[in-house]
Amino acid sequence: MVGATEAAIQAGNVVRGTTSPNPPVGCALVDASGELIATGATSPAGGPHAEVNALREAGDRARGATAVVTLEPCNHTGRTGPCSHALTQAGVARVVYLTADPFEPAAGGAEHLRDRGVEVVFQPERVAALQPWLRSVRNNRPSVTLKFASTLDGFTAAVDGSSKWITGEKARELVHQDRATRDAIIVGTGTAIADNPSLTARYPDGSTRPVQPRRVVVGTRNVPEGNLTRLGFEQYATPEEALQALWETGGRDVLVEGGPALAASFLELDAVDAVQAYIAPALLGDGRGVLNRSIADTIAHARRFRTTCVRPVGNDVFLEMEKDVYGSR
Ligand SMILES: NC(=O)c1ccc[n+]([C@@H]2O[C@H](COP(=O)([O-])OP(=O)(O)OC[C@H]3O[C@@H](n4cnc5c(N)ncnc54)[C@H](OP(=O)(O)O)[C@@H]3O)[C@@H](O)[C@H]2O)c1
């Protein structure tokens, strides 16, 4: 079953960034001997869900099989039919799910399956790919991840303003990989004007990846002609307006890439759900901080997070933290 669980999680990982407003769910079907029959993942909005894609691939072999799904099968008819019904119709004997569905209209899949004689097992596990979506449906706004690159002593630029490059190539490659899994990238007008960024997700050779996030700028100043204007971007006057507009148009998972004024604003709004820090083993002693102002006057008031990932990336260190961890009862 460990193999099937891994296969389901992996299938969900692959479609991150392509499924909003739906969650990136993965499903694996195994037969009675434990052999993997099929995998499936959520299609873009309006398309089949993970379970249906896996069932289609399995065909008749789904009868009597075990389905491992990263999220409780949905039980409602939206743009597609309920997955719980598709599983019973296909004759699946057992369903293992890793995360309970907190989305009220879709919940109840486990009960539907049990009522029809399917063995249902809830095997709680933190599925990283689902965390942003879970947070978004609980908060009724997109999940916000604050990302920054800094030196070991917390500076994002030197005293002369230079910041290219604090981290190495491997870290920058990871940033681009991550961008492709997000619905939008947000920066302030300060960064848009100072850096003339393209905010695209690219491969190391500079070519653009097939899936691109929306490009969002927050602030009232005009962004001069440059990369962003050429590619097209959305601009909102405040962080609240940006989050509202993104939520209403299907945005569930967004990345705030700075700068320090905008990052402090999102923290003051208590709208930072996760942090990604790329820390370079370098010291500056002075320079520009990750935030441009104090957000806590004493240690007891510091904004704290739970560390979920620490790993070396090239010669740098990647840290991931979350405010809350959802998904298991
Ligand atoms: N190392 C890193 O990870 C990193 C990442 C990004 C940027 N940077 C650096 O950061 C520097 C730019 O920083 P910055 O602080 O000047 O700019 P910024 O944070 O990108 O943008 C600041 C602007 O955002 C808007 N804004 C912020 N909070 C707001 C709020 N609560 N309501 C409404 N608007 C709000 C305002 O725009 P208006 O004034 O237009 O209304 C404000 O002037 C650049 O040099 C860049 O290279 C470093």
UniProtKB/TrEMBL annotation:
Binds 1 zinc ion. PANTHER family: 2,5-DIAMINO-6-RIBOSYLAMINO-4(3H)-PYRIMIDINONE 5'-PHOSPHATE REDUCTASE, DIHYDROFOLATE REDUCTASE FAMILY PROTEIN (AFU_ORTHOLOGUE AFUA_8G06820). Its EC number is 3.5.4.26, 1.1.1.193. In the N-terminal section; belongs to the cytidine and deoxycytidylate deaminase family. Zn(2+) binds at residues 49, 74, 83. InterPro entries: APOBEC/CMP_deaminase_Zn-bd, CMP_dCMP_dom, Cytidine_deaminase-like, DHFR-like_dom_sf, Eubact_RibD, RibDG_C, Riboflavin_Biosynth_HTPR. SUPFAM superfamilies: Cytidine deaminase-like, Dihydrofolate reductase-like. The active site is at residue 51. It comes from the Bacteria. Keywords: Hydrolase, Metal-binding, Multifunctional enzyme, NADP, Oxidoreductase, Riboflavin biosynthesis, Zinc. Substrate binds at residues 163, 179, 202, 257. One of its GO terms (molecular function) is zinc ion binding. This is Riboflavin biosynthesis protein RibD. Pathway: Cofactor biosynthesis; riboflavin biosynthesis; 5-amino-6-(D-ribitylamino)uracil from GTP: step 3/4; Cofactor biosynthesis; riboflavin biosynthesis; 5-amino-6-(D-ribitylamino)uracil from GTP: step 2/4. Converts 2,5-diamino-6-(ribosylamino)-4(3h)-pyrimidinone 5'-phosphate into 5-amino-6-(ribosylamino)-2,4(1h,3h)-pyrimidinedione 5'-phosphate. One of its GO terms (biological process) is riboflavin biosynthetic process. The gene is ribD. NADP(+) binds at residues 149, 165, 191, 195, 199, 220, 259-265. It catalyses: 5-amino-6-(5-phospho-D-ribitylamino)uracil + NADP(+) = 5-amino-6-(5-phospho-D-ribosylamino)uracil + NADPH + H(+); 2,5-diamino-6-hydroxy-4-(5-phosphoribosylamino)-pyrimidine + H2O + H(+) = 5-amino-6-(5-phospho-D-ribosylamino)uracil + NH4(+). Its cofactor is Zn(2+).
